[in-house]
Amino acid sequence: MNSNEIPHIEVPFPPELTVEEILGRRPDEKLGSRAPNSFFLYRLAFIKELKKRTGGNNSMTKISPYVSLSWSKEPPEIKDAYKKLSSLVESQLIKMRQKKQYNSLVFIHENSSLPQASEINDIVDEVDVVDEPTLFYLDYFHFFYHNIYYHYYNF
What we know:
mainly alpha, DNA Binding (I), subunit A
């Protein structure tokens, strides 16, 4: 067999791909995207098996017709196994998205009336006590806290 030929590949059943392996290749920016479908996962398994057998990289344009033909010949139980794997990946993505949202929850109000720099400078100019700078911070905290509270409950 020459280097241009693709050998006959038996895609593993049950699938040897794991959810962790599939998601490990995905950057954080892509967590919002859907999980790969059953055919795409089958294609990944095909390519993984091909690399084991040949040790080299083949172009996707060269491999795709073989993957498609192999997929069309697979019985329903194999297709269902890859469909189930796709569902497991999607479930894990949902958990990861929820965890990410929970960990990075930030309250931003579009029309927040936070003091402008000039207002802060005016307040600082009016403060006579230099030995206790925490008074300014406490006043600013109360202003900020009550402003957010007001906007949140009067929306």
